[in-house]
Request: fold
Amino acid sequence: LVHEYSGIATSAPVDVTAQNIANGTTAANNITTTAATTTAVGDLVFAVAVDDAGVTTIQAGTNFTVRSSVTDAASEDRVLTTPGSVAGTWTFLAAHRYLAIMVAFKGAGH
Reply:
């Protein structure tokens, strides 16, 4: 999964990161990173989930847009309008163990 973005701060671009390894269910938005608290307006939140079994369909979480999806992984992103608590979330169509990671990048004006 390769992605390219513009409009990211060139100095100290990473605001926060989060990750999680857990057993998932098929409940909506149950696949999740831990939460992190952003500090800047307009952060780009980029997140990836990987299905350990490698065989399920992965849907982007609420308020996220899926950017890439392959057999065992999916990426998503969103731009935050206000700073605060955020976590990457997804829905798996099968209950599998997963790895989820998220990074929030500050916009170019920060």
Summary: Strands lie at 14-23, 31-32, 36-37, 44-51, 58-60, 65-70, 73-79, 85-86, 89-92, 97-105.
